[in-house]
Amino acid sequence: MxxxxxxxxxxxxxxxxxxxxxxxxxxxxxxxxxxxRTEKPDISHxxxxxxxxxxxxxxxxxxxxxxxxxxDVQDVTNQPAVTRDLALIKVAAEPxxxxxxxxxxxxxxxxxxxxxxxxxxxxxxxxxxxxEGLVELLRPIGIIELVRTGQVAMLRGDSLGIRYTPGxxxxxxxxxxxxxxxx
Length: 183
Hints:
This protein has 183 residues and is α+β, with helices and mostly antiparallel strands.
């Protein structure tokens, strides 16, 4: 089963390497890994997608908490979350095929972001299933190159989903709840 973990980590050099090394040491494969800054410049948001059993996922979560720079870990697999992936798809496009590609892009709410004499680049954002659907329809036309960002995930609503045990690795839990902020 595919599991999606969200980790809040300190935005410091070497944190990504430590997280990736943890997966390597435990012989777990990362299906998708996406890291980016948050609204707080000293904190980064990691979305990790892995194919594992529930028990293995709990072990990974527990081991992530042991890393000093990890502030919070959430398994959002069965929680109300929004997940998105971005793909850029370069498609062979002679002039007579461009309207067909544009129509397919329109159906999937994708857009053509670059046009060259012999190709177009289509940008699509959505779920993995949506992206796979467009890829399968573009494949017979001729995909030249495909690049994907990997998933990003965020819990829906004002749900915090924090399951951090204070003091476990020397940090206090993060609160994203705006009601808790006194700035």
